[in-house]
Write a structure and sequence with these properties.
heterodimer; A: 371 residues; mainly alpha; ABC transporter involved in vitamin B12 uptake, BtuC; three-stranded antiparallel beta sheet; two-stranded antiparallel sheet; 15 helices; B: 302 residues; two-stranded antiparallel ribbon; globular
Chain lengths: 371, 302
């Protein structure tokens, strides 16, 4: 399958920071910016500072940061599915549960629970393969409800399995050798690693040709297929990658709570949170889910005392964000300031004219795809 | 004999699933929207029935002349305020908006009515039954529910095939742009379809609430069952939806006869099996199967 010239030019651009695209008007295509360099530098500093938290502040700061970092990982992974690839799965709680139970199962067999996080991620990715064969046949709302069914099936299976404690659940073994301080610090670092890996992994994946293909699949699968994008393979990769990452998050949740129980690890609340963070932050951007995670974290800290009202607000804001501000908070800010801290697209400028002439926007894919 | 009985009870129960599912099927067929709040709207119908019947002090059936028009109006309102707008925002927006609505409804009900399970006052009908043969007793309530489902489906089928409104709906479902070109006012068609979808959901909610109990979180499972009935039966085929609902009901009751714990799991597995073998459902055309998979196709209601 041959791709149109636009795609080939764009692909060549992925190798170089700048190139002159082979079109009649000489234009400069760039994938990076000074803002992005500054931001990347700042992120490295922030991550280093976060890594130092257990040494400097310790326990009291760890718990809230673990929650926040878990949110960041969940939101980034859901964004890969729904934002970039158009797969609105509301059954990602299935993989949270699979990850949590996988962690329990490997820990029971003597594997160190912290090493078990990686195994849990692999287990979730493996489980997602047969699931994908079923649900990826469907699209849109039908895909969404089918994923709900899959999560329900997993929950019932866990409930009916005496080996993992049935309805009562099981506690995570293998942690007796750790002091509380060390265990919490290790959990914190593991969460930090998973969160950074999720954001960086999604970013690097989306910057590759995969990102272009996935957004094409997300906006119109038929048009994407007719342009030579291998729709099935793109969907499968996004689904399996998101499932693996979500499995790691599930393992972390099991490590935080030290207890794995069907109704809590398969709770649809996880899927609601993912949806909310991505929509509020800005769908199909790398920065948006992080903003969304911060917003959900702050809302939860301030409003969780109101119980169900908190969720009414969460649901309402998600609806409003979809209808009124479909690009979310980050999209709103980025549009005003012209920022793209982690650019995934291509910025095309006519050479010789001003930076914002916009004259060369034609042939390249847009800098930010709107869903 | 207990198997025959289980099959019969399952068939009657399946009528309930078909009754919830027909609105879901209709809304998808006409507006291409999968309303993820459909189950929650059914549960809302049950709560509205509870409020009306306890305020007026009458069995819930007496409140239907109030309840159904109210549900119809809510459906039209939702279409105008939310769904119609969501549909203009591309393919993702309806899924996100209806899911957000579902979260809102469940938690508003939680705030307003607490999470205690409730039941509806069905009057004398609730406990009345008649005996066919030695081992088989049929509850009048279940039978009424099943016959109501059949009546609603027949009426919908007649409306769609015989009236000018139905012709407009079918034309809109076939090809939105062409329907507009030939002068059909699409928005009233959409609003009336959404109204019917919510009204049938509310009616189903009243039956569910009378037969068993309901709580604010019941909507998600209700949605899943309705959705499974739609997919098993085949998208857009109203009679297929009835067959799908009956298949679910029979599976649930027959497996429940063996072991109650596996009843719901068996229903989900039946759904996944149908999805694997015949993704378009049992009664469907190639075109509507293509729509489920996201490939453009035309014409689902007929």
């Amino acid at each position: 399958m041959r791709r149109p010239a636009v795609f080939r030019a764009a692909r060549a651009g992925s190798r170089d920071a700048e190139l002159v695209a082979p079109v009649s008007v000489a234009v400069a295509v760039s994938r990076w910016s000074r803002t992005a360099s500054v931001f990347t530098g700042a992120s490295v500093v922030v991550v280093a500072a976060l890594a130092a938290v257990p040494f400097v502040i310790g326990g009291p700061a760890e718990q809230p940061l673990i929650t926040l970092l878990t949110f960041v990982a969940m939101a980034s992974l859901w964004n890969l599915l729904a934002g970039f690839s158009g797969l609105t799965s509301f059954g990602q709680n299935a993989f949270i549960g699979v990850g949590a139970y996988a962690l329990y199962l490997v820990a029971v067999h003597g594997v160190n629970p912290f090493a078990g996080i990686l195994l849990a991620a692999i287990a979730a990715a493996v489980v997602s393969l047969p699931v994908s064969a079923l649900v990826l046949r469907l699209s849109g709302g039908y895909f969404a409800v089918a994923t709900l069914v899959v999560a329900a099936v997993f929950q019932i299976v866990a409930t009916l399995s005496p080996s993992v404690g049935g309805t009562t659940g099981v506690s995570v073994p293998g942690l007796a050798g750790y002091s509380d301080v060390l265990r919490e610090a290790l959990t914190y670092w593991a969460t930090l690693i998973v969160a950074v890996a999720s954001v960086a992994g999604v970013y690097l994946l989306v910057r590759r040709t995969f990102g272009l293909d996935a957004r094409a699949v997300g906006s119109d699968p038929v048009a994407a297929a007719s342009s030579g994008v291998r729709v099935g393979r793109i969907k499968l990769l996004a689904f399996v990658a998101a499932a693996g990452g979500t499995g790691a998050v599930g393992a972390l949740i099991a490590l935080q709570t030290l207890y794995v129980e069907p109704t809590s690890v398969f709770s649809i609340q996880y899927s609601v949170d993912m949806l909310f963070m991505v929509l509020i932050g800005g769908i199909a951007t790398i920065e948006g889910p992080i903003v969304g995670a911060l917003v959900l974290f702050l809302l939860q800290e301030t409003l969780s005392a109101y119980g169900a009202w908190y969720l009414v607000i969460v649901g309402g804001l998600a609806v409003l964000a979809t209808l009124i501000a479909s690009r979310g908070l980050w999209g709103f800010v980025a549009e005003r300031l012209g920022w793209s801290l982690l650019p995934v697209g291509y910025r095309v400028r006519g050479s010789g004219s001003g930076p914002d002439s916009g004259s060369g926007r034609g042939p390249a894919p847009p800098a930010r795809a709107t869903p | 004999m207990s198997w025959v009985n289980a099959g019969l009870q399952g068939m009657l129960l399946g009528g309930q699933y078909a009754l919830i599912a027909c609105g879901l099927s209709l809304a998808f067929g006409v507006m291409r929207i999968v309303n993820l709040a459909h189950g929650d709207l059914a549960v809302c119908g049950a709560y509205l029935g509870l409020v009306l019947s306890s305020v007026l002090g009458v069995p819930v059936w007496v409140t239907l002349p109030l309840l159904l028009p109210a549900a119809f109006a809510v459906g039209m309102g939702l279409q105008v305020v939310l769904f119609g707008r969501a549909l203009r925002h591309g393919v993702l927006a309806p899924v996100l908006v209806t899911f957000g609505l579902s979260v809102m409804i469940e938690n508003l009900l939680q705030v307003a009515a607490t999470s205690d399970p409730r039941g509806l006052n069905g009057g004398a009908l609730t406990l009345a039954s008649f005996r066919i043969t030695g081992g088989i007793t049929v509850s009048w309530l279940f039978l009424t529910g099943f016959l109501t489902a059949c009546a609603v489906l027949s009426c919908l089928q007649l409306l769609l095939s015989r009236t000018s409104w139905g012709r407009n709906v079918r034309a809109t479902a076939d090809d939105l742009d062409t329907a507009r070109l030939v002068g059909i006012r699409v928005r009233p068609v959409f609003a009336s379809v959404a109204g019917i979808a919510v009204a049938t959901a509310a009616l189903a909610g009243v039956f569910i609430g009378t037969i068993g109990t309901f709580d604010p979180q019941a909507g998600t499972n209700t949605l899943i069952f309705a959705f499974e009935a739609v997919v098993i039966g085949g998208i857009g085929s109203l009679w297929g939806t009835l067959v799908g609902g009956v298949a679910l009901g029979i599976t649930q009751v027959v497996v429940g006869e063996v072991n109650q714990a596996y009843a719901v799991l068996a229903v989900h597995l039946l759904f996944l099996a149908v999805l694997t073998v015949r993704p378009g459902g049992l009664f469907t055309s190639h075109q509507s199967a293509a729509q489920v998979r996201g490939v453009r196709g035309q014409g689902v209601l007929g």
